User: Fold this.
Amino acid sequence: VGAMAATALAVWRLGPTGPLPMHFNMAGQVDRWGDRNEMALVMGGVTLVAAGIAAYCARAERDEALTEKLQDSGRFTFRFGRMIGLLAPAYVTLLMSLITFDLFSRTEDGQLTLLRWTLGGLSLLFLVLGAFMGKARPNPVLGVRTYWSLTSRLAWDKSNRLAGRLFALLGLAGLVAAPLVPPSLGMAIMVAGVLLAAAWSTFESWRVWRIDPDRKQGA
Assistant:
């Protein structure tokens, strides 16, 4: 968090005074410009989000009643949540600082390779999440958290195992595709894959809940 805050400060004080790209379309082209003050403000906001997630997970990890309720996965779940909650915003901050100081390589037509780096980072994140979700116990941080999965342990296990496999496969495919396919196509497929995985896992939690004789009637 300190490194992220220092990076935001460096962008605010040392960044170029000219216009900076603030938003990109699905083709990787800049469709909105800003300045270093706006860039630093956004990076500061990302830093605060990361700090909030880390603080919540650290506090929950020390909550004996909560971790006991989650049994042996409690502390690991919150440590994992804290790791993702710090690394993902840190990666975003890194990309924004590279954009600010124009350190990205460019394609033959002069476009930044930002989308390739974004696709690669998302793919790695989904691969790590997928490896964890299939083994996660019910918790307040990560997983397929629907009414049906929270009132049926069988529905939780089945839907999260499915989601874990789907996200892991999506992440692996994204890592392979990131340097090979056009970035806009890769991002479109990634978004479609996430929506499909989320919908399929949600349906699976409902389907298993319906046939679980031990399901409860309150979340």
Notes: The helical segments are 2-14, 36-61, 64-69, 74-100, 114-133, 147-150, 153-177, 183-211. The longest helix spans residues 183-211. The CA atoms of residues 26 and 137 lie 36 Å apart. The longest strand covers residues 20-24.
